[in-house]
């Protein structure tokens, strides 16, 4: 039990066995004082997100809501491409083009007919960066593997992109293996590592508290937003604030969940949301979709594809406050 607000220790993995289920209890502290108190630690909840996701205009059209490009997949990993694609489509983007190796063409056209498939000349891996002019945001990483040709594509993307980037999975592993590429990272990019991927980017942490300091330093140095995934996913910002998520459940610890998050974040950035708003909304909606899905499947039976079904209802909640 904690008065008014949780303690940071409640949110860190190594303390889980000592904390168990935690609850906050109001004791009448001034809400005005709390709002004015200086802090660099925040919880991502519905109150924090109020008003950040614009309602759709009656006369909006597909051009209003952005054109996203996803660079996805390799032989044996087209499933990751499908999950990210379906999540992006469910997250409100107006148009979506998916660049995939030739091996993924039939699969993507069948599983996501609403997306346009742009086939790479290579059969098994991404080998060329397409023309980027049409796009308002670009996501890269799920299923791409770490072929030399794919590293070249990533470097070209970092050097030439003029729109927001979302990087995940093997795009992050390529950055970790080639630190010189980090210097090319455009400001306000969103990175979505799990703890081991983050370790490859920033070095080993002594403990959970040190990892948060490394997160702050990394985001400040590279002027990026980093989504450190976990039970209370933590968003690091270039200015040093840390935001901890309040949605999600252990059933989401399954392959493909991160691919869904990549598609969701890319769609929000394509709709011209700021990096901070897109990251906060995406993290919360991802976890909330998992909570809604678990009501139907249970946590043990939850798979990543279930998350995509509940992204729409979650985003509807965020534009309809009374739904809570």
TrEMBL record:
Residue stretches making up the YjeF N-terminal domain: 1-35
Residues that, per the record, bind (6S)-NADPHX: 80, 143, 194, 259
Pfam families attached to this UniProt entry: Carb_kinase (PF01256)
Domain YjeF C-terminal: start-end pairs: 45-318
InterPro entries referenced in this protein's UniProt entry, alphabetically: Carbohydrate_kinase_pred_CS, CARKD, Ribokinase-like, YjeF_N_dom
Cofactor: K(+); Mg(2+)
Gene3D superfamilies linked: 3.40.1190.20
Domain of life: Bacteria
EC category name: lyase
Residues that, per the record, bind AMP: 229-233, 258
Any GO BP annotation: nicotinamide nucleotide metabolic process
GO molecular function: ADP-dependent NAD(P)H-hydrate dehydratase activity; ATP binding; NAD(P)HX epimerase activity
Biological role: Catalyzes the dehydration of the S-form of NAD(P)HX at the expense of ADP, which is converted to AMP. Together with NAD(P)HX epimerase, which catalyzes the epimerization of the S- and R-forms, the enzyme allows the repair of both epimers of NAD(P)HX, a damaged form of NAD(P)H that is a result of enzymatic or heat-dependent hydration.
Family: In the N-terminal section; belongs to the NnrE/AIBP family.
Assembly and interaction partners: Homotetramer.
Family matches, as HAMAP family: NADHX_dehydratase (MF_01965)
Protein name: ADP-dependent (S)-NAD(P)H-hydrate dehydratase
GN (gene name): nnrD
